[in-house]
Structures are given as C-alpha cells and as structure tokens.
Amino acid sequence: FPLVSGHLDPGSHRKVLMKTGLILLILGHLNFITGALVHGTVLRFVVTARDATSLHYGVTNSASVVAALLTISCGVSALLLSRYLGPAAFKWALLCLSACSSLCCLCCLLGLLVAMGLTLGNQGRVLLAPCSITSAALAPVSRECPFDPTRVYSSTLSLWAISLLLEAMEIFFSIRCLLLTLELLRL
C-alpha cells in the first residue's frame, strides 16, 4: 500500500477497497453456488432431525450459505465505500459487515472441517442413509434412492473442499476489508 505520512492516500484506499469488494463479491457468489449444489444434490434428501450427523451437515451447509450472503453484502459495501469515502455511516457499516463476515466464515470453515471429518469417519454411510440398498456401487438411481449413490460420497466431499477453500479466502479478504476500514476510521 502506498503510504502518505503513515496513512494510505485516498486514491489508494479507493483502489484497494474496490478490488477487495469485487473479490468478496465473486467469492461470496461462488460459495453460495457451491452450498446450493451440495444442498440440492444431496443434503435435501439426507438431513433429518433424528440423526445428529445429518443435522450437522444441514446446519453447516445453511450457515455456509448465510456466510456467503454476508460476504456478498460486505463486498457491495466495500464497493460503495470505494466510491463514497466521506460518509462515516458507510465506514461503520463496512466495519460491522466485515467483522461479522470474517467470524461467520470462520465458524463455517470449522463446521465444514468437522462435517468432512465425520463423513470420512463414517465412510459416507450418513450420506447414503436414504437409500435402501446394500451396495451403493452396484445400484443406479432407482425408486429406493432419490439420487445417484455412486458418486455422492466423492462429489459431496469435493464440493465441501471447494467451499472450505472459498471460506478461507473469504476470511482473508474480509479481514483485509476490516483492516482497511479501521485505517479509514483512524482506529
């Protein structure tokens, strides 16, 4: 960051805020799509209130979608602030949104790690619970199983890994946005 007497100059603030806002906007949308894919292809069939693991899957995935929406809001606020540096209300709004976004993304990251660990630990049995078949590898999509069980384990883990990476990037850029806002507020 180019410094002018110990602080970022306003032109540099605008540029960095705009880039950070655009990155947050893109990351939030990608994570939203990833969460929707996981929910739409697998979790809508799996999540039941009677099973703690499947309930954890549903809560973590829902929280990931909420975190994505928060990240999108943070990105939009950063873009607005890059355009209008003057109003203190924009700065405080971005400070709150970036703090909430980074904390929510951190919680989702930890939840996704636990979900992946549980899935690896039970070898995908919870994901295949709606299927009344003995071998997932032998059965194609049928009336007994509402989705294709042959790739549900690897697909879900792959999508969660992508979401995990996106959450980590969202945390990084939300914290960057938070630090920029603290600099603008001179806190």
Automatic annotation (TrEMBL):
InterPro entries, alphabetized: Beta-casein-like
GO cellular component labels: membrane
Transcription is among the record's keywords: no
UniProt topology in membrane: Multi-pass membrane protein
Keywords assigned: Membrane, Transmembrane, Transmembrane helix
Domain of life: Eukaryota
Pfam families attached to this UniProt entry: BCLP
Subcellular localization(s) per the UniProt record: Membrane
Major location (coarse): membrane
Residues annotated as transmembrane: 21-42, 62-81, 93-118, 157-182
Family designation: Belongs to the TMEM54 family.
The name this protein goes by in its record: TMM54 protein
